Hints:
By secondary structure, the chain is α+β, with helices and mostly antiparallel strands. The protein is built from eleven helices and 14 strands. The protein is globular. The structure holds iron/sulfur cluster (SF4) (2 copies).
Amino acid sequence: MNTPDLPAGIMPDYRREIPAGLLARQGSWIWHEILQPGVIRHLAADGSTLLTVRILLPPNGLLSAATLRRLAGWIREYALTGRRTSRQGFEFVGVKPEKLEKLLAELEAAGFPAGGTGKSLHQVKCCTSFVHCQNAAVDAPSIAKVITDFFYRDFLQQELPAPLKISIGGCPNQCGGGVEADIGILGWYESVPEVDEERFLAANIDIGLLVSWCPTGAILTRQVKDGMVVSIDADRCVRCTSCVQVAPEGISLKKRSYVDIAVGGHGGNSYSGPEMAAVVFTRIPARPLEYKAIIDRIEAIINYWRRSGKPGERLAGFIERTGWSSFLEAIGAGGVEEPGDKPSLQTNFRRDLHFRY
Ligand code: SF4
Ligand code: SF4
């Protein structure tokens, strides 16, 4: 494949990062197969092959300088290059076949096991949450770690009906992508932001800007003796935290929080095309360190799908075939309002699906 010269600009040219032996075959790939969990072999049109090894990274792909040096050392010794995957894992690309077993052994001993390919639990993706985000309602990285540790066998082997992608966002903004995953964990504040009228007035906040930032028109203005204040319409507010970013002097969040668990999100075109996940468990306590209430429900979902899913059937397709009512009943999530009715993403407002833990 002839690739045109890329124009000069601010973004580095990705081809600078690719060794010549790999660049020469760009665009010539015709097939790939999974040799064993975490090991993929790609075939090029000229008959040459390329080995890729996928490993588990810490949650959110957080990497210290020391870990980056270790990854670089393994690349130098065993592979052509490396890349962080879209799910925050890592792949060694162009692994030397004669050194594959040694690399796998070293990775396992160092706590970076290979896996997450094919019909396995793929790297659990999550947002940064409290690491450096002011919006977080729950700690997505620690939830990701607990889920991965609990289901680690499913990362290391490929015995699920189909690939399983779990994603976690620490607040409704969902930078972690929970709304489009097979299983999504969605962090929520328990109540809408609170307005401290005295502090709000003292801070001389730009009310026009504040109102324009609210995506749902939930901020209502009111004239009082000393100026203009706002209140928040709880029925309209989706707890996105935008108003707190604009007016932190006068609007704040109560720290109580919970998660919703959604299923059947799907980003690709297979089955009936891209789908938003639907909430099946709402107001689930997110209690570190075990996060037992979350684990119990994810286990119910995975076990039912593991038992009854057909080979190659992603969670969305499985639910489509078996029906929402029987799925919800089997996982202990209660019923839906009408048979066959798919729950909505905003089920946090649907008390009928409230599951008491
Ligand atoms: S989802 Fe929320 S908590 Fe997570 S990084 Fe985005 S804004 Fe922050
Ligand atoms: S949290 Fe979001 S939706 Fe709610 S009032 Fe603030 S800006 Fe509007």
